[in-house]
Amino acid sequence: MYSNKQIARSAGFLYLLLILFGVYAEKYVRNSLVDVDNAAQTALNITNNAMLFRMGFVADLLMQLTYFLLPIVLYQLFKKTNRAMAGFMVLCVTTAVAIMSSNMLNHYAPLLMLDKNGFSNAFNVDQIHSSVLLYLQMHTIGYCIAQLFFGLWLLPLGYLVVRSGQFPKIIGILLMMGCAGYLIDFMIYFLFPGHSSTLTQYITAPADLGEFSLCLYLLVRGVKGSHLTISSKSTE
Predict the structure, then answer these.
(1) Which of 133, 146, 157, 149 shows the shortest CA–CA distance to 214?
(2) Across-strand partners of 228?
(3) pLDDT averaged over 10-residue windows placed end to end, the chain, 236 residues
(4) How far is CA 203 from the centre of its chain?
(5) What gap in Å lies between CA 62 and CA 12, rounded to an integer?
(6) What is the pLDDT of residue 41?
(7) In b/e form, how buried is each residue of 43-63, taking b as 16+ CB within 10 angstroms?
(8) Which residues of 141-155 are buried (b: 16+ CB within 10 A; e: fewer)?
(9) What are the angstrom distances between the C-alpha of 165 and each of 5, 37, 49, 153, 172?
(10) Which of 40, 92, 95, 109 fits a disulfide with 153 by CB distance 3.0 to 4.6 angstroms?
(11) What is the largest CA-CA distance in the chain?
(12) Per-domain boundaries in the chain
């Protein structure tokens, strides 16, 4: 028997892992190694820090694993509030994870291109450097495609947070605003390339605030609720 509070804290722990793995892979690893304006420097950075680049790759995959598990746990909390919306939430994340996982091939490809015993013998130095940066740019584009779905999942999540009565409504409102922000940013990225990254930070701020707030609330407060049994019947 598991209480809703225990389930909520499990979800909070998964949410925290998701955030930590994601921040490490994107903000620490890729931001420190990738120079979008200098292919040669990027290739040199990856060559000199191959293990760090690999750790970023693994962290990204672990982030996707926790992201896949998170809505399955949240479904247990929200299925009584609205089963259809809870199912839609799971579907959005499953689609996003499928896209992001496939996209990780673009993250790993630079290692193959820079391997002295691999494909590097078939290309000259400039071609290798350009290919490395191309694969990393393709990874960014793939991530932005997935954003359509990991942005969309915030709509049912926010709705369920508001309707369940188990969380502060402001968190749910921020999450739904975050959905709109992600979708707007998705459109801007593909329709207006070269837009300011500062604009993206402002547009996606409600999503960041809402998700971080929900993570903390799940970890610290959990929810009030009766016991329920996690079984084949309860997970339908």
Answers:
(1) 157
(2) 2
(3) 85 97 95 94 96 98 98 95 97 98 97 82 88 96 96 97 94 97 94 81 94 96 56 43
(4) 17
(5) 16
(6) 96
(7) bbbbbeeeeebeebbebbbbb
(8) ebbebbbbbbbbbbb
(9) 14, 48, 48, 19, 10
(10) 92
(11) 65
(12) 2-228
CA separation for the pair 162, 168 (Å, rounded): 7
CA pair distance 36, 212, nearest whole angstrom: 29
Identify the pLDDT of residue 122: 76
Tokens 């940013």 locate to 185
What DSSP designation does 122 have?
A: G
What angle, 0 to 180 degrees and rounded to 10, lies between the N-to-C axes of helices 39-48 and 125-152?
Answer: 90
Q: Full-prediction pTM beyond 0.85?
A: yes
Each residue's pLDDT tens digit, 161-198: 999 999 999 999 999 999 999 999 999 999 988 777 78
Amino acid code (one letter) for 214: L
Of residues 95, 92, 189, the one with CA closest to residue 144: 189
CB 33 within 8 A of CB 42: yes
CA 217 to CA 227: how far, in whole Å?
Answer: 19
Token readout for 200 is 């993206």
Contact 115, 131 (CB under 8 A): no
3-state secondary structure 130-152: HHHHHHHHHHHHHHHHHHHHHHH
Question: 156 in helix, strand or coil?
Answer: helix
Report the amino acid identity of residue 205: A
